Amino acid sequence: MPQASALTVAELNELALKIKEWAIEFGFAEAKITGTDYSQHKEDYQAWIDAGYHASMDYLANHGDMRFFPEQLHPGTQRIIALRMHYLPQSVETVKRLQTKSKAYIARYALGRDYHKLIRKRLTLLAKKIQTEVGDHGYRAFVDSAPVLERQIAENAGLGWTGKNTLLLTPKAGSWFLLGEVFTNLPLPIDKPTPKRHCGSCTACLDLCPTNAFVEPWVLDANKCISYLTIEHDGPIPVELRAKMGNRIFGCDDCQLVCPWTKFAKYTEEQDFQPRHQLDKEELVTLFMWHEEEFLKKTEGSPIRRTGYENWLRNIAIALGNAPYSEEVINALKSRENSSSELVKEHVSWALAQQALKPKLI
Q1: How far is Cα 294 from Cα 64, in angstroms, rounded to an integer?
Q2: Which of 19, 362, 61 is nearest to 190 (CA)?
Q3: Secondary structure (3-state) at 221
Q4: Annotated catalytic residue, options 65, 114, 144, 272
Q5: How many whole angstroms separate alpha carbon 228 and alpha carbon 245?
Q6: Is residue 83 classed as helix, strand or coil in its secondary structure?
């Protein structure tokens, strides 16, 4: 095949088909190709920012127009290769684990290795594979790490549609997958956008969100979102939201679990997404008793490291306050009354007060 700068339309069409085949070989579920103009999303996005729904995530308000005009992020970009990868291990329980209040619930994408590292490596392998075929094509790989409108790009590429819960959905796999992109300077043929959003009149994700974080369909207020609160938020968690968090200590999957399209979920074959340290079924008390060195060791290479040790204890303290009464829970909480930060102490005190209100088991 000729070098990138000399490819004919027929050769570009052939290359696009090969790229989609290579993507499957590298562990992706699907790949599609789309263009670079996302200016139509600017007004709605800015309104969301102006309303303060991004909470303390200032990075979502920064970088000017880069997220709407990808060529500003990677000069020369003509196309975006959008990809998705399944992450849910078949052996992992979801709803049953949420209902077992003495055990921790961690968002299922975070049970194994940090997806950023795994997917970025595969994206780079794909981009280099293209390079071996046609020479230098000018590329940059992204996975939830830059001002990129991932879901809008995926929807425009035909990978699925943005659901009312703001996640990308597809009848092929529900929403249990992660997204990544390769920006390329190749003028590849473009796939058709997803023609319709298939949520219909369903409002399950909006109605059953534990903290009522959805302002309206397709509009999420991160200030109330358990994923934001347990991962990105520093400082005390609002008292009025604590009891609603249940046993969710890192992230939240509820708006996926209640979605009817979840029944079409596909399981991952990636070993790196398999649970580490029994994080899919561990007791809250056990995790609460990790010392900082243990936390750092057991979250090495994990997305959980992002929340930090103090916030980890804060989150688990809340979950222990929401757990059924037990002397073991009381003793675990009391063990950190005087030896932790003010942040942890505050949430331990709240948790002990909650435990005091619960019926004691005979």
Answers
A1: 40
A2: 19
A3: coil
A4: 144
A5: 12
A6: strand
- Region class of 224: left (phi > 0), else alpha (psi between -120 and 50), else beta: alpha
137 within 8 A of 226, measured Cβ to Cβ: no
DSSP string spanning 341-356?
Answer: -HHHHHHHHHHHHHHH
Residue 225 and residue 167 in contact, taking contact as beta carbons nearer than 8 Å: no
Classify strands 139-142 and 177-184 as parallel, antiparallel or unpaired.
antiparallel
Task: Report helix, strand or coil for 85.
Answer: strand
Which of 332, 333, 326, 329 is CA-nearest to residue 361? 326
Structural tokens at position 353: 């007060």
Hey, what's the torsion of the CAs at 273, 277, 282, 283, to 10 degrees?
A: -150
Is 144 a residue of the active site? yes
Q: Which of these, 213, 212, 250, 205, lies nearest to 232 by C-alpha position? A: 250
Phi, psi of 182 (to 5 degrees): -120, 115
End-to-end CA distance of the chain: 76
Structural tokens at position 76: 């020369």
CA distance 230 to 237: 8
Distance, CA of 142 to CA of 358 (rounded, Å): 47
- Residue 216 parent element (H or E): strand 214-216
Amino acid at 353: A
Give pTM, 2 decimals: 0.94
Per residue of the chain (362 residues), give pLDDT as tens.
666 768 899 999 999 999 999 999 999 999 999 999 999 999 999 999 999 999 999 999 998 889 999 999 999 999 999 999 999 999 999 999 999 999 999 999 999 999 999 999 999 999 999 999 999 999 999 998 889 999 999 999 999 999 999 999 999 899 999 999 999 999 999 999 998 899 999 999 999 999 999 999 999 999 999 999 999 999 999 999 999 999 999 999 999 999 999 999 999 999 999 999 999 999 999 999 999 999 999 999 999 999 999 999 999 999 999 999 999 999 999 999 987 799 999 999 999 999 999 887 65
SS3 33: strand
